[in-house]
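Hi there,

I know you've been waiting on this one. I reran it after we fixed the sequence typo, so this is the corrected version. Both the input and the resulting structure follow.
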Amino acid sequence: MTSPTPQTQSAQTRRKIRWRRLGRGMILGGVAGAAIEVLNVNVLFRSFSHTILATTIIGAVVGLTRWRKVLWYVNAALVIGILLISYTPLARILIHTLDCADPPASADAIVVLADGYIDTQTIAAQAQDRVLCALRLLRAGYAHQLLLTRPVGTSGGWTNLVRKQMLDLGLDFPVDQTEPVRDTHDESLEVWRIARERGWHRLILVTQTWHMRRAGALFQKTGLTIIRVPCGDSTYDSQSASNPYDRLCAFRDWLHESVGYLVYEMRGWI
């Protein structure tokens, strides 16, 4: 049997090295993508939904070049970022920069910003927080009309769920919904249209505390008098943010809202 020549052995060695670099690059790229999603940094790219796939491919390509060491530096920076946010008060400080609220007062209607529902029987957790806050305000007599914004791609299921829950709690108030909306800017314009048609001037706006700064600014831009009454968030403790999970959630929301506010401001919507 003919033994491999030095040239053949050299070519095989180079192929093995390329495959190892390719595999290492894919792993480092995938890990970086996961870390980016944990921190919600992908919001800088309009919440791109295939972050891990994209960074894995990029990592594989970079892993074959002389710039492959950059992958280690990127991962190190992301790990340090996660540790910094998870184990320091930074996230709690940042999330509280979004705080803004007004004392509840009488209004023409209460507006609840939509956050979806899971199925025909279940309202999503954050949407449920908003609904319960609005129902408490209705029961307290601050308004006698509820207006829900409706996300694109949904029918009347969201409104029906809220109406059913209201009746189950012994309350009976009119519940209306907007036309389909894609984002908070659409919500503000659609609510303004309905308010103008019905002669409303003062509205109570209900959404999570971390979302209120941006949402309130958008609605006030329409010229309506907006009473900002934020609700809590049952998915994590944003007030104390006393553990790594809560701090990461707080940072994710802070980053999303801060980027969103800046983008809206640049577009002249705020």
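Quick highlight: The chain is about 55% helix and 10% strand.

Best,
R. S.
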